[in-house]
Amino acid sequence: MLGHRYTHTFLETAVASLNAGCNLELSYGMRNNVFTHIPKALAMGNITLQMLRDRVRPLFYTRMRLGEFDPPAMNPYSALDLSVVQSPEHRNLSLEAAVKSFVLLKNIQGTLPLRAQDLSSQHLAVVGPFADNPRVLFGDYAPVPEPQYIYTPRRGLETLGANVSFAAGCSRPRCRWYSREEVVRVAGAADVVVVCLGTGVDVETEAKDRSDLSLPGHQLKLLQDAVQ
């Protein structure tokens, strides 16, 4: 509200938010916490005690439903330890979710899926800034998995026994410096070319938006060179 100049002070913002039905704040620490001004708003008569109770009630009802006030022995999650974190069972479930989330826009001449039994006789090229860079594969607010569990496109294809060549073309998603020669050399000698492009948190994330939907930097040129 302050950023859009709808209000001019934290006190005004707290009052306007409560009047609009907002009962939860995502703040940047105590210094920039708007709702710490609620007691002052109450003392000044800007809000009523009944309104404050109405806003607080669903918060505590939700916390009760989540079991936050139950004895630890009643909470099934209290028996969990770190052995379940990234356990085989959970990683297999994540793999299943990833496989089921793919969207295939085109499949001209039945190119996909690539069949593992056919790959040993083919030469694959994996190109692009997302082909073998684990750091750029995860979006905003993503967890940080153990490195041994991260499979880049290049690493994943290599596990299938394929003859894989790799060229990033540009080391970062912004792709400001592009090596056309290495992409053309690797792609030109391959039977199948896998091009890995995108944005990543280097280009867009919370509070960092793009001005258009174009591929960043020279990524479009990279794609065109690989296709050609």
TrEMBL record:
GO MF annotations in UniProt: alpha-L-arabinofuranosidase activity; xylan 1,4-beta-xylosidase activity
Name of this protein: XYL2 arabinofuranosidase
Record carries keyword Hydrolase: yes
InterPro entries, per database record: BXL, GH, Glyco_hydro_3_C, Glyco_hydro_3_C_sf, Glyco_hydro_3_N_sf
Organism: Calyptomena viridis
Keyword vocabulary terms for this entry: Glycosidase, Hydrolase
Single biological process term from Gene Ontology: arabinan catabolic process
Lineage: Eukaryota, Metazoa, Chordata, Craniata, Vertebrata
Pfam name, any one: Glyco_hydro_3_C
Domain Glycoside hydrolase family 3 C-terminal: 103-226
